[in-house]
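Exercise 7. Predict the structure of Core-2/I-branching beta-1,6-N-acetylglucosaminyltransferase family protein from Dipteronia dyeriana.
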Amino acid sequence: MQTRVVVPLEEGGKDPIVTSRTNPSRALPLRLIQLFGMFLSLCIAFWFISVYAIRHFGVQSVMTSVKSTFQPCFDQENDLDLWIKPPSNLMHTMSDNELFWRATLVPRRKKYPFRRVPKIAYMFLTKGPLPLGPIWEKFFKGHEGLFSIYMHSLPTFEPKFPQNSVFYNRQIPSQISEWGRMSMCDAEKRLLANALLDISNEWFILLSESCIPLYNFSVIYHYILKSRHSFTGAFDDPGPFGRGRYNENMAPEVNLTQWRKGPQWFEVNRKLAVNIVEDTTYYPKFEQFCRPACYVDEHYFPTMLSIQAPHLLANRSLTWVDWSRGGAHPATFGRADITEEFFKRIYGGQQCTYNNQPSSVCFLFARKFAPSALEPLMNLSSKVLGF
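Solution. The predicted structure, encoded as tokens:
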């Protein structure tokens, strides 16, 4: 809208000058219309260019020409490595149920798509320290890559192994276990489950802090490697300490004729280890109906494995013990017992079958040895034990 303004003439008598002034409120909308027109023109031009590019080069090439500049802040491992790498730290926060479930995830194909060197898992069920640890250090030396070590001790025990020790950081999450009760079998299953997390572990040996090897590493490794059986004692004892411990409430899962007894210390292959860890059929029966004076660690695994896979069992243990002195526990050997004659008696009295053939090598380990036996054992190891 324009307004007319009359400017008075100066004295001298000229006509008045009329000026016109434009209202700024009318100029602003015109500017917006111009900007909108420019924007619309750009959009139309971009649309024509896009249609032309799609017709001549295709949608895929146009879309992929715009690449994301996002880069992850970490390098992802190969997918297969996530499955075949053993845990870098044995300590974890899984419950037993979670651990057992994880440990029983097994491949169905027999051939491995990578180079797999089978290892022996040495599982130590202990109260705390390993007084005979130095003899084991000597035994394992130079055989890295062929063994794994796992320790289950009292949960309050704090190991203080040096970083160069084979036992350094090899303790698993543990709970209290009592001799003759189901908590002892729980500890053994816990060891097996943790060892199963390493796909290279093929054989699993249960040992105590009082055990020693009777041969060098190579002899033991090849003995187990070539065996067609696992070494778990399982026999039918008709007496009061065998069938006399059977409870009829365990039927129908376990009948009296299936009831077996055997020593606690075993060696099993990977298949049987999975069978033990995944069991939910026999466990409730043994937990409820096999209590002192039924010592569950002498019956649970021998009975279950005899029912499930009797053809895979050698029905004997690899661990030598001396029951000749009588009592509820085998003899313990100290410093004064450790002589060459002592070991000759152990080696000389062995008769068994190995792969269904007669053999004079029946025991690969022995117990029970007191801490005082360490020094003479170290002195005799190269001459008697072979390492």
